[in-house]
Amino acid sequence: MRNRLLTILSIFILSLSILSCATSNLDFQRDARDTFVKIKQNVAITVCNPADPKECLTKTSRSTGSGAVVMRTDEGSYVLTAGHVCSFEKEMQLASEFAGSKILVQMRSVNFSLGEYVSDIISMDHTIDTCLLFARNLYTTKVAKIAPYSRSLEEGERVYNVAAPVGIFYKDVVPLLEGFFMGNRDTRAYYSVPAMGGSSGSPIFNKHNEIVGMIHSVNVYFPVVSVSPPLKELRAFIVNGIRKNERLRLGEKKDRVVEPFWKGLGLSDMSENSL
After folding, report:
1. Rounded to whole angstroms, how far apart are CA atoms 28 and 230?
2. Vertex 234 angle, CA 233 and 239, to 5°
3. Exposure on the CB side of residue 236, measured as CA atoms within 13 A
4. Does the pLDDT of residue 105 top 80, yes or no?
5. Separation CA 6–CA 153 (nearest Å)
6. Rounded distance between C-alpha atoms, residue 52 and residue 39, angstroms
7. Angle, to 10 degrees, between the axis of helix 231-250 and the axis of helix 254-265?
8. Is residue 121 in a domain?
9. Local confidence band at 27 (pLDDT 50, 70, 90 cut-offs)
10. Which entry of 14, 37, 39, 223 is 20 to 30 Å from 107 by CA?
């Protein structure tokens, strides 16, 4: 009788554990879908014949990446992505070889309903390959929270990723992946999360549905190992970029911008975020 009771109790505890995990995964799926955006970049270079200005040739390059909404405002949303997703240095170099050439860069953020929103480049950091965009008139139901330093990952901790590898992203469909934190080395954090072209800029979440990383590259010989900036550097980039732009956008002093800014990012206290 006692053994039977123990068996029933064990099954009951196991069922609660499974239910808890399922609920957590469902929460992640809903939040990830709501905060995720696909990034589109179009760069058009127009070169005209100096002898005949009406004779022109336009070359257009297109690329895609991934991103996450990290803060909402009354005019739109801030989006985190990889630096090279925003970069157009190669096109600039090409345009500089032709006198009188013109270059037009268009960035757009595409939400889960396939709505496209013009996005402006706010800040970039090439050393950690990060970019912050402001998507005009983009209002998501959720905002991806940034993990506090106190929740730095332990090696072997499970993580989750939402991305658009090779452009896989349709209405109501986006890949959800998982893996493990492998550790930090210098200005790089390593994860066993599969990635391909198009995954760049995609957020990495912890079990609390908070951003702890952002994929910017992958091992080409073993594409299940992806690379991200460490949490400390990533947080500093997001915090400083939004804080600076909010001051410019609102034309107000720091004391009036800080309160909604910290709340929007889900950060715990001022001392922790004085970066």
Report:
1. 21
2. 100
3. 9
4. yes
5. 35
6. 37
7. 130
8. yes
9. low
10. 223
Instruction: Give the number of other Cβ atoms within 10 Å of residue 210's Cβ.
Output: 18
- With respect to residue 20, please indicate whether it lies within any of the assigned structural domains: no
Mean pLDDT of 135-157: 90
Whole-number pLDDT of residue 265: 52
Instruction: Find the length of the chain.
Output: 275
> Which residue type does 18 have?
I
Give the count of domains, the chain: 1
Identity of the residue numbered 48: C
Mean pLDDT of the chain: 82
In a domain, 91, yes or no: yes
DSSP 173: B
Residue 11 CB contacts under 8 Å (≥ 6 apart), including other chains: none
Instruction: Specify burial of residue 152 (Cβ count, 10 A radius: 0-12, 13-18, 19+).
Output: middle
Q: How far apart are CA 200 and CA 166, in angstroms?
A: 10
In sequence order, which ranges of the chain are alpha helices (DSSP H)?
Answer: 2-35, 83-86, 89-96, 231-250, 254-265
Q: Residues 210, 145: contact at Cβ < 8 Å?
A: yes
CATH code for position 123:
2.40.10.10
- pLDDT category of residue 142 using cuts at 50, 70 and 90: confident
How far apart CA 161 and CA 178 sit, in angstroms, is 6
Residue 87 belongs to domain spanning: 34-136
Residue 177 falls within a domain, yes or no? no
